[in-house]
Automatic annotation (TrEMBL):
Pathway: Amino-acid degradation; L-histidine degradation into L-glutamate; N-formimidoyl-L-glutamate from L-histidine: step 1/3. It is found in: Cytoplasm. GO terms for molecular function: histidine ammonia-lyase activity. This is Histidine ammonia-lyase. Its EC number is 4.3.1.3. Keywords: Histidine metabolism, Lyase. One of its GO terms (biological process) is L-histidine catabolic process to glutamate and formate.
Length: 524
């Protein structure tokens, strides 16, 4: 599966400090997308050292402890003598780095490495301070392990993806340097002044037993979707202008007092702001014989609002997971080493699947507005397919085909991954979350939604331009100026794919929202 992401600036952000109290979604974004440097707080280093001393004492005892002096998974009851424990850790990482398929995106790998470091810094895993520091050094050097598309079942955490990262700490595996070019791992480490680690008791499990991959992708997707939900309000409002729709259904008295879903209230307010002072809208406010606009126009805040509220629930889950310290076994406050099931990815997997539904539905509604603008029977005076010379020119006919194909794919991606479970590890791990797969398909869905909205933007701005001499409102005029500067004015048929790609980049950059907010003020 090929995943996509929003384009962000690459300037380094302010340093992020890892403490025993955890981290924030803003920190994850800063490290994953903006190469923020990560530092370890002194109190976190002290706690990690103190807990490690306890692990060393257990390793020297005769009592078998899972992850310290036993095998793993279905081999948990197999004792491992001290002279084989270094080999045990190497074998664990090497055998678990069994991914396949294309490499996942750099920002995903950086997010999962940072989130694993966050848990290690909690002092709950028993890792040595020098091993944690090596992980941070690799992250700060811009070295990115090659992590593959397939390998994680989301339980016991994202084992294979994290194992590929841990392998690089050992001086093995595959990685790219800061410039994005793959080079031998020993060469990359030496160039950065990083000595490979020799893992000791408990460290192998500590490095790979977490939900960091799926959580990182959830956090990245939520950041993109917050922007895209506002984009969807803007493109919907522009479609209302293009289709000579009314703005009266977006007034606040129809929303918060009557149906107080927070997302709906915000979406309606955004659309009303974008349509403010629109001569196109005012031109048919009186004497129009249409009683109501179609659902894809009139109900846009209800759909976009429900998507926002779904994201709000997912954000709450992400925040809880950020506060977690996931490992197995885990070190409790009294020093007890306890096996547990916190690595199961169900809480994250469910919301990753949940978000895929409104992503698909929001795109589906946008496509219906596009189709309406291209159909002369429903567009209220626009030429067929917004073509300059209908018949000779096809206009935006096939752009809508592309949009429809993307929507169809989004519907397929909305089928949940978390309802599936394929037992593994000789039935020891007999129920798994498939949260990694839910994350991968959501990332693809986010990119597809943005492309659908880019086609709606292309269509709506062309429809508005064709309404001349009627003019859009100030917000619509500003957007139309942006779009015209990028792809030119409507005219005879031309190569459309570059226009769609250009507007996709425009949305991904955040410029559409900035342009509108410069006119109407902050949007929700």
């Amino acid at each position: 599966m090929t995943a996509t992401t929003t384009v962000f600036a690459t300037d380094r952000a302010a340093p992020v400090t890892l403490s025993t109290s955890g981290t924030t979604t803003a920190d994850v974004i800063a490290v994953a997308r903006h190469d923020a440097r990560v530092e370890l707080a002194p109190e976190a280093r002290e706690r990690v050292s103190r807990v490690r001393a306890h692990i060393d004492a257990l390793a020297a005892s005769d009592t078998p402890v899972y992850g310290i002096s036993t095998g793993f998974g279905a081999l948990a009851n197999t004792p491992i003598p001290p002279q084989k424990r270094t080999r045990l850790q190497k074998s664990l990482i090497r055998s678990h780095a069994a991914g396949a398929g294309p490499a996942v995106e750099r920002e995903v790998v950086r997010a999962l490495m940072f989130l694993r470091a966050k848990t290690l810094a909690s002092g709950r895993t028993g890792i040595r301070p020098q091993t944690l520091q090596t992980l941070l050094d690799v992250l700060n050097a811009g070295i990115t392990p090659v992590v593959h598309e397939f390998g994680s079942l989301g339980c016991s955490g994202d084992l294979a993806p994290l194992a590929h990262c841990a392998l690089v700490l050992m001086g093995e595996g595959r990685a790219t340097g800061p410039e994005g070019v793959e080079r031998p791992v020993p060469e990359l480490l030496a160039e950065a002044g990083i000595a490979p680690v020799t893992l000791t008791e408990k460290e192998g499990l500590a490095l790979i037993n977490g939900t960091d991959g799926m959580l990182g992708q959830l956090i990245l997707a939520l950041a993109d979707l917050r922007e895209l939900f506002t984009v969807a309000d803007i493109t919907a409002a522009l479609s209302v202008e293009g289709l000579l729709g009314t703005d009266r259904v977006f007034v606040p008295e129809l929303h918060e007092p009557l149906r107080p879903h927070p997302g709906q209230v915000d979406a309606a307010a955004n659309m009303l702001a974008v349509l403010a002072d629109s001569p196109i809208v005012a031109s048919h406010r009186h004497g129009d014989d249409r009683v109501q606009d179609a659902y894809s126009l009139r109900c846009a805040p209800q759909v976009a609002g429900a998507a926002r509220d779904t994201a709000a629930h997912a954000t709450q889950v992400a925040d809880r997971e950020l506060a977690a310290a996931i490992d197995n076994p885990v070190v409790l406050d009294d020093g007890t080493i306890s096996s547990n099931g916190n690595f199961h990815g169900a809480p994250v997997a469910y919301v990753l699947d949940f978000l895929a539904i409104p992503v698909a539905d929001l795109a589906s509604m946008a496509e219906r507005r596009t189709d309406r603008m291209l159909d002369p029977a429903r567009s209220h005076g626009l030429p067929p397919f917004l073509a300059e010379d209908p018949g000779t020119d096809s206009g935006l006919m096939i752009a809508q085909y592309t949009q429809a194909g993307l929507v169809s794919e989004l519907k397929r991606l909305a089928v949940p991954a978390s309802v599936d479970s394929i037992p593994s590890s000789a039935m020891q791990e007999d129920h798994v979350s498939m949260g990694w797969h839910a994350a991968r398909k959501l990332r693809q869905g986010v990119g597809n939604l943005r492309r659908v909205l880019a086609v709606e933007l292309l269509t709506a701005t062309r429809a508005i331009a064709l309404r001349s001499p009627l003019q859009p409102g100030p917000a619509g005029a500003a957007v139309l100026a942006d779009v015209t500067a990028r792809i030119g004015t409507p005219g005879p048929d031309r190569f459309l794919a570059p226009d769609i790609a250009d507007l996709d980049d425009y949305l991904a950059s955040g410029q559409l929202v900035r342009t509108v907010e410069a006119v109407v003020g902050p949007l929700h």
